[in-house]
Known about the structure:
Layout: H1 7-13, H2 20-24, E1 50-51, E2 58-59, H3 68-73, E3 99-101, E4 108-110
Antiparallel strand pairs: 1-2, 3-4
Amino acid sequence: METEPEPAATEAVKKEEPPAEEATKKPPGVCDFCVGDTTADPKKKEEAMISCIDCNRSAHPSCLQFEGSLAENVKSYNWQCIECKSCSICGTSDNDDQLLFCDECDRGFHMYCLTPRIDRPPEGRWVCHMCKKGP
Length: 135
């Protein structure tokens, strides 16, 4: 009478392959755009990266073309990359064609969630109510 091998014995022979997306993931602390490390972009200047709170993708602010106060402001809150961006008012990413991005903080806002509501994307720079400076 033949017996089947113990399950543990056959599992030891199997090699677990990482899922396809795991094999292509960049190591943590690598810029998604220039593939530089956490402290230096390809131009070799010191620059800390920002990471998406949702997917953990990282980038140098300069690689995202964030300059001046925008580069500093994104470090002060739970930033989301363009792929994960949701509305800062309702919290959803539905109707992404209706999302406006603040030129001062890069937060997203649905035009219909704003008060007053905005019917068309504004031309030029747009600054959200959180970044507008009062008199």
